[in-house]
């Protein structure tokens, strides 16, 4: 519900475009590589040093989670900035109309 409200308030197609462009996947992959590797070492230490077996499903999820969190954060930030810009543009437009009306009334 929260994801739906934050990301998909507007156009789903636009949200998906933001998630797959403008460097978002590259930044998310870099973050996932760093954070995921650290988490794999923490969570799979015994297997990493040869004292246990590696759980490859957990390893894959350990990289997927930071990738998805980074992508979500980037897209939600972009959408928030876009909404702020739209509000600012609307305010400027309204002020221009008000000024134009005042000039015409005098």
What would you say this structure looks like, in words?
Helix 3 packs antiparallel against helix 5 (about 55-105). Helices cover about 85% and strands about 0% of the residues. The chain has one domain. With about 110 residues, the protein is mostly helical. The mean pLDDT is about 85.
Summary of the model, kept short:
By secondary structure, the chain is mostly helical. It has five helices and no strands. The chain is rod-shaped.
By helix and strand content, what is the structural category?
mainly alpha
Helices and strands, in N-to-C order? HHHHH
Instruction: Give the total of domains.
Output: 1
Number of contiguous helices: 5
Distance between the termini: 52 Å
Quaternary structure state of the chains depicted: single chain
Q: Which spans of ≥5 residues are poorly predicted at pLDDT below 50?
A: none
What would the principal axes of the Cα set say about the shape? rod-shaped
Percent range for helical residues? Answer: over 70%
Number of strands: 0
**What is the mean predicted local confidence, pLDDT?**
86
Portion in beta strands: under 5%
- Rg over CA atoms: 23 Å
Largest sheet: none
């Amino acid at each position: 519900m929260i994801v739906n409200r934050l990301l998909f308030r507007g156009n789903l197609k636009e949200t998906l475009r933001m998630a797959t462009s403008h460097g978002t996947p590259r930044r998310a992959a870099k973050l996932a590589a760093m954070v995921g590797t650290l988490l794999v070492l923490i969570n799979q230490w015994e297997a990493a040093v040869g004292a246990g077996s590696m759980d490859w499903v957990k390893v894959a999820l350990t990289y997927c989670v930071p990738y998805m969190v980074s992508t979500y954060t980037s897209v939600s930030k972009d959408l928030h900035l876009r909404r702020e810009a739209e509000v600012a543009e609307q305010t400027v437009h309204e002020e221009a109309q008000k000024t134009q009306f005042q000039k015409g009334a005098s």
